[in-house]
Amino acid sequence: MEPQENWNTSEKSKLLQPGPPPYQDHLSHPPPGNFQSTSGYQAQQYGASVPYGQGPYPGHPAVTVQPAVYVTAIPLVYPVPDYLGYSIFTMLCCCLPLGIAALVFSLNTRSANLSGQQQLAETNSKTALTLNHTALGIGIVIMVLYITLIAVNSKHHLHE
Question: Widest CA span of the chain, in angstroms?
Protein backbone atom coordinates (compact mmCIF):
# COMPACT_ATOMS: atom_id res chain seq x y z
CA MET A 1 0.00 0.00 0.00
CA GLU A 2 1.45 3.31 -1.09
CA PRO A 3 1.17 6.51 0.97
CA GLN A 4 -1.22 9.11 -0.31
CA GLU A 5 0.11 12.07 -2.29
CA ASN A 6 -0.61 14.64 0.42
CA TRP A 7 0.96 12.40 3.11
CA ASN A 8 3.97 14.00 4.83
CA THR A 9 6.24 11.20 6.13
CA SER A 10 8.40 13.53 8.23
CA GLU A 11 5.43 14.67 10.32
CA LYS A 12 4.70 12.56 13.37
CA SER A 13 1.23 11.25 13.83
CA LYS A 14 -0.97 13.07 16.32
CA LEU A 15 -1.87 9.68 17.88
CA LEU A 16 1.64 9.23 19.22
CA GLN A 17 2.96 11.02 22.30
CA PRO A 18 2.94 14.83 22.21
CA GLY A 19 6.17 16.75 22.04
CA PRO A 20 7.87 17.87 25.25
CA PRO A 21 6.86 21.11 26.94
CA PRO A 22 8.90 24.17 25.97
CA TYR A 23 12.29 24.48 27.66
CA GLN A 24 12.39 26.77 30.66
CA ASP A 25 15.79 27.49 32.09
CA HIS A 26 14.66 28.59 35.56
CA LEU A 27 12.64 25.44 36.46
CA SER A 28 14.07 22.08 37.46
CA HIS A 29 10.88 20.18 36.57
CA PRO A 30 7.96 20.78 34.24
CA PRO A 31 5.38 23.31 35.41
CA PRO A 32 2.14 21.98 36.88
CA GLY A 33 -0.60 21.64 34.34
CA ASN A 34 -2.62 19.16 32.32
CA PHE A 35 -0.74 17.22 29.68
CA GLN A 36 -2.39 15.20 26.97
CA SER A 37 -2.78 11.52 27.67
CA THR A 38 -2.23 9.12 24.79
CA SER A 39 -2.94 5.98 26.81
CA GLY A 40 -6.71 6.38 26.87
CA TYR A 41 -6.82 7.11 30.61
CA GLN A 42 -7.98 10.35 32.10
CA ALA A 43 -5.47 13.16 31.86
CA GLN A 44 -4.06 13.91 35.28
CA GLN A 45 -2.47 17.08 36.50
CA TYR A 46 1.29 16.79 36.87
CA GLY A 47 2.35 16.68 40.51
CA ALA A 48 -1.19 16.12 41.80
CA SER A 49 -1.81 13.32 44.26
CA VAL A 50 -4.01 10.41 43.24
CA PRO A 51 -7.00 9.76 45.50
CA TYR A 52 -6.68 6.49 47.41
CA GLY A 53 -9.73 4.83 45.88
CA GLN A 54 -8.68 5.28 42.26
CA GLY A 55 -7.21 2.22 40.61
CA PRO A 56 -5.82 1.53 37.17
CA TYR A 57 -9.24 2.21 35.59
CA PRO A 58 -11.42 5.16 36.59
CA GLY A 59 -13.96 4.11 39.20
CA HIS A 60 -12.22 0.83 40.10
CA PRO A 61 -10.55 0.50 43.51
CA ALA A 62 -6.85 -0.20 43.63
CA VAL A 63 -5.70 -3.50 45.12
CA THR A 64 -2.59 -3.01 47.17
CA VAL A 65 -0.60 -5.96 48.45
CA GLN A 66 1.70 -5.15 51.31
CA PRO A 67 4.84 -7.20 51.84
CA ALA A 68 4.89 -9.62 54.75
CA VAL A 69 6.71 -8.32 57.80
CA TYR A 70 8.44 -10.86 59.99
CA VAL A 71 9.22 -9.73 63.51
CA THR A 72 11.72 -11.84 65.36
CA ALA A 73 11.74 -11.72 69.13
CA ILE A 74 15.13 -10.88 70.57
CA PRO A 75 15.63 -11.62 74.28
CA LEU A 76 16.54 -8.67 76.47
CA VAL A 77 20.26 -8.06 76.92
CA TYR A 78 19.71 -7.25 80.59
CA PRO A 79 16.71 -9.37 81.66
CA VAL A 80 14.51 -8.22 84.50
CA PRO A 81 14.52 -10.56 87.56
CA ASP A 82 11.54 -12.91 87.54
CA TYR A 83 11.62 -14.08 91.20
CA LEU A 84 10.56 -17.60 90.19
CA GLY A 85 12.27 -19.32 93.14
CA TYR A 86 10.81 -16.82 95.60
CA SER A 87 7.35 -17.40 94.09
CA ILE A 88 7.63 -21.17 94.43
CA PHE A 89 8.77 -20.80 98.06
CA THR A 90 5.89 -18.47 99.00
CA MET A 91 3.40 -20.72 97.20
CA LEU A 92 4.52 -23.85 99.08
CA CYS A 93 5.44 -22.43 102.49
CA CYS A 94 3.62 -19.18 103.15
CA CYS A 95 0.35 -18.36 101.44
CA LEU A 96 -0.91 -20.61 98.66
CA PRO A 97 -3.29 -18.19 96.83
CA LEU A 98 -0.83 -15.27 96.73
CA GLY A 99 2.01 -17.66 95.91
CA ILE A 100 0.11 -18.96 92.87
CA ALA A 101 -0.56 -15.40 91.68
CA ALA A 102 3.11 -14.50 92.21
CA LEU A 103 4.13 -17.62 90.26
CA VAL A 104 1.93 -16.59 87.32
CA PHE A 105 3.48 -13.10 87.23
CA SER A 106 6.97 -14.60 87.52
CA LEU A 107 6.34 -16.82 84.51
CA ASN A 108 4.92 -13.85 82.58
CA THR A 109 8.08 -11.90 83.44
CA ARG A 110 10.24 -14.71 82.10
CA SER A 111 8.18 -14.82 78.90
CA ALA A 112 8.42 -11.03 78.43
CA ASN A 113 12.20 -11.19 78.96
CA LEU A 114 12.53 -13.82 76.23
CA SER A 115 10.34 -11.87 73.79
CA GLY A 116 12.16 -8.58 74.34
CA GLN A 117 9.29 -6.67 75.98
CA GLN A 118 11.09 -4.54 78.56
CA GLN A 119 8.12 -2.61 79.99
CA LEU A 120 5.90 -5.67 80.33
CA ALA A 121 8.73 -7.58 82.02
CA GLU A 122 9.31 -4.74 84.50
CA THR A 123 5.59 -4.48 85.35
CA ASN A 124 5.20 -8.24 85.86
CA SER A 125 8.42 -8.42 87.88
CA LYS A 126 7.30 -5.64 90.23
CA THR A 127 3.89 -7.30 90.70
CA ALA A 128 5.48 -10.70 91.39
CA LEU A 129 7.82 -9.16 93.97
CA THR A 130 4.96 -7.32 95.69
CA LEU A 131 2.84 -10.48 95.83
CA ASN A 132 5.79 -12.49 97.15
CA HIS A 133 6.52 -9.95 99.92
CA THR A 134 2.83 -9.88 100.87
CA ALA A 135 2.59 -13.69 100.91
CA LEU A 136 5.76 -13.92 103.02
CA GLY A 137 4.39 -11.33 105.45
CA ILE A 138 1.09 -13.19 105.76
CA GLY A 139 2.99 -16.46 106.22
CA ILE A 140 5.18 -14.99 108.99
CA VAL A 141 2.14 -13.52 110.77
CA ILE A 142 0.33 -16.88 110.61
CA MET A 143 3.43 -18.70 111.92
CA VAL A 144 3.85 -16.21 114.80
CA LEU A 145 0.15 -16.49 115.69
CA TYR A 146 0.31 -20.29 115.53
CA ILE A 147 3.43 -20.47 117.75
CA THR A 148 1.88 -17.99 120.20
CA LEU A 149 -1.33 -20.02 120.32
CA ILE A 150 0.59 -23.24 121.01
CA ALA A 151 2.70 -21.55 123.72
CA VAL A 152 -0.36 -20.08 125.45
CA ASN A 153 -2.21 -23.39 125.23
CA SER A 154 0.69 -25.39 126.64
CA LYS A 155 1.24 -22.90 129.45
CA HIS A 156 -2.46 -22.97 130.22
CA HIS A 157 -2.43 -26.82 130.35
CA LEU A 158 0.63 -26.85 132.66
CA HIS A 159 -1.07 -24.70 135.32
CA GLU A 160 -4.15 -26.85 135.56
Answer: 143
- The whole-angstrom separation of Cα 126 and Cα 149 is 34
Are 92 and 119 in contact by the 8 Å Cβ rule? The answer is no
> At a CB cut-off of 8 Å and minimum separation 6, what does 84 contact?
103, 106, 107, 110
User: Hey, how many other C-beta atoms are within 10 angstroms of the C-beta on 30?
Assistant: 13
Residue type present at position 71: V
How far is CA 69 from its chain centroid?
A: 11
Sign of CA dihedral 38, 42, 45, 50: negative
Beta bridge partners of 45: 34
Please report, in tens digits, the pLDDT of each residue of the chain (160 residues total): 555 666 665 555 555 666 666 766 665 555 555 555 555 555 555 555 555 555 566 666 666 788 888 878 899 999 999 999 999 999 999 999 999 999 999 999 999 999 999 999 999 999 999 999 999 999 999 999 999 999 999 888 777 6
Looking at the chain, list the stretches that DSSP marks H as alpha helix, in order from N- to C-terminal side: 84-93, 96-115, 118-158
- Taking the C-alpha atoms of residue 82 and residue 122, their distance in angstroms, rounded to an integer, is 9
